[in-house]
Amino acid sequence: MVVETEVIRHEYLRHDKKFPHVWCPGCGNGIVLGSLLRAIHELGLPKDDVVVASGIGCSSRLTTYIDFNTLHTTHGRALTFATGVKLAKPRLKVITVMGDGDATAIGGNHFIHAARRNINITAVIINNSTYGMTGGQYSPTTPYGSKSTTSVYGHVEHDFSIAELAVTAGAVFVARGTVYHAAQLDKLLEQAITKRGFSVVEVISNCHVQHGRRNKLGDAVTMITGFRDRAVPVAKAAKMSAEEMRGKFTIGVLCDVDKPVSSEEYDRIRQESCQLPQ
């Protein structure tokens, strides 16, 4: 295991670039980075065949550190850039890394329509319930009553669930993991990357510096171990009442279905139209 970790570290990181990284000590983004690299390594994907796109935010800095074809794009637009890459070069394995605000606030329409179209892209969404990089403002996943720089007396809006939104919008594979359950996260990412169509992995993570500090949730270790206590496997949750699930969330695979992939359908229509009599 130590040898494999060394191989992954030397093979997939840009050592001469932006290290040391910008993430706060204890941030879950580093756990997600490691999990993504292990998943790609386990799948044996050639680096030149992988494209990772990100938007703007703490989590989106991940593309700076990994040695693949990468795009560090504009806020909320990772999926639009990724869609262009996939349409131009269908053979490439395209992955996006986004934060909860990046993906579901300014990028919300892109997210739901990418799911609806079933574009062959994997979306990794790191959900830390806040805009961490820009000062701790509330995001679409900030819990009701929480304090932030834009809700100093308590958040009056209700949060929504990214994973359930993805299922409803039409994604063919949807899973949720946490930065505590790193081994499980590796496997969820492997499944998502190999799935044909639009796949989503929501990763519950911590921002102890912004969200955690303002809401007295403790340090990084306390927040991360808290995910262990609140996470319930999907199969177990199905047998629990709403009262038993209060304050908890499901982890595992929420959806795994098959649908026609839009980029392949587009190519089919294009080929057929070229054969029509002029």
Number of domains: 1
Give the number of helices.
Answer: 12
CATH superfamily: Thiamin diphosphate (ThDP)-binding fold, Pyr/PP domains
- How many E strands? 8
The span between the termini is 61 Å
Low-confidence stretches are none
Structural category = alpha/beta
> Mind telling me the C-alpha Rg?
19 Å
Q: The biggest beta sheet, please?
A: 8 strands, mixed
Q: What general outline do the C-alpha atoms trace?
A: globular
Helix percentage range: 40-55%
- State the order of secondary-structure elements, H for helix, E for strand: HHEHEHEHHEHEHEHHEHEH
Strand share of the residues?
15-25%
Protein name: 2-oxoglutarate ferredoxin oxidoreductase, beta subunit
GO biological process, one term: cellular respiration
Organism: Desulfofustis glycolicus DSM 9705
Pfam families: TPP_enzyme_C
Write the layout of secondary structure elements.
Blueprint: H1 2-12, H2 29-43, E1 50-54, H3 62-65, E2 69-72, H4 78-88, E3 93-99, H5 100-104, H6 108-117, E4 122-127, H7 162-169, E5 173-178, H8 182-194, E6 199-204, H9 208-214, H10 220-230, E7 231-233, H11 234-237, E8 249-256, H12 262-274
Parallel strand pairs: 1-2, 1-3, 3-4, 4-6, 5-6, 7-8
Antiparallel strand pairs: 5-8
Describe this structure in words.
- This protein has 278 residues and is an alpha/beta fold.
- It has a single domain (2-274), classed as Thiamin diphosphate (ThDP)-binding fold, Pyr/PP domains (Rossmann fold, 3-Layer(aba) Sandwich).
- Helix content is 40%, strand content 16%.
- The chain contains 12 helices and 8 strands.
- It has an 8-stranded mixed beta sheet, with helices on both faces.
- Helix 8 links the parallel strand 5 (173-178) and strand 6.
- Helix 2 packs across helix 8 (182-194) and helix 6 (108-117) packs across helix 7.
- The longest helix is centred in the N-terminal third of the chain and has 15 residues, at 29-43.
- It is globular.
- It starts with a helix and ends with a helix.
- The mean pLDDT is 93.
